[in-house]
């Protein structure tokens, strides 16, 4: 398959290792992976804060950049949901933009969706000998309805002990601009999530969105808990040889 990596702003700027992990993993599974250098922000921040026209412009650019691929894979449930859910609402019905979105948006997948629904595998040959708990981020849970896809993948990682997270479906408090507009509430929600993580005794907190991991990880770090945060892609890309 000819697959494009949609890296997303947060990963490109702050977590480039996640993008490298996606490429390594998909190539190991036989995919031909491209990285279109012209890609930019998907426009989620703009649309969510009322800048609709900027969102329309970025959606148009996205469809131009990613046209022609068999699939577009994003290591972010949040940004994949933006393209699939919000892009169709931005274009005028019957327009060229609407047609382009209808062509590209259904081919955009969050990583675990692509592995299980497209490549038809829940065992990617990974090895990660650590105690791990998984946080299902809001967009992946409520917009993409990922369900148990990420945990199915984690359960098949050799050496990994997967422990359930109490209150897993509760928001961590990040919410993009929500954390900026409501910092006190956001911090309180992050503290609640941190207590649940510590109750598991996990060494590593895993999620499908680095934005949420960044938020939770800040609290974990300030409290000197010793719990690491890792994106799902980085765990799935791990092999015995790399340990």
Automatic annotation (TrEMBL):
Domain Cysteine-rich: 3-83, 132-216
Pfam hit, one: CCG
InterPro entries tied to this protein: Cys_rich_dom
Name of this chain's protein: (Fe-S)-binding protein
Species in which this protein is naturally found: Nonomuraea marmarensis
């Amino acid at each position: 398959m000819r697959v494009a990596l949609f890296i997303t702003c947060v990963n490109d700027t702050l977590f480039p290792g996640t993008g490298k992990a996606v490429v390594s993993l998909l190539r190991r599974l036989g995919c031909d992976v491209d990285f279109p250098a012209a890609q930019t922000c998907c426009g989620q921040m703009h649309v969510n804060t009322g800048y609709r026209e900027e969102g329309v412009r970025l959606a148009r650019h996205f469809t131009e950049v990613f046209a022609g691929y068999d699939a577009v894979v994003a290591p972010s449930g949040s940004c994949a949901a933006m393209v699939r859910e919000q892009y169709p609402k931005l274009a005028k019905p019957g327009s060229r933009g609407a047609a382009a979105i209808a062509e590209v948006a259904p081919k955009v997948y969050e990583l675990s969706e692509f592995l299980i629904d497209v490549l038809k595998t829940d065992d990617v040959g990974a090895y990660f000998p650590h105690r791990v708990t998984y946080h299902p981020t809001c967009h992946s849970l409520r917009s993409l309805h990922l369900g148990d896809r990420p945990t199915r993948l984690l359960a098949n990682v050799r050496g990994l002990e997967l422990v359930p997270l109490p209150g897993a479906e509760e928001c961590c408090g990040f919410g993009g601009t929500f954390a900026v507009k409501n910092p006190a509430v956001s911090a309180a929600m992050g503290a609640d999530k941190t207590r649940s993580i510590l109750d598991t005794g996990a060494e590593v907190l895993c999620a499908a969105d680095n934005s949420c991991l960044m938020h939770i990880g800040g609290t974990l770090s300030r409290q000197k808990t010793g719990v690491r945060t890792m994106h799902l892609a980085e765990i799935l890309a791990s092999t015995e040889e790399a340990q």
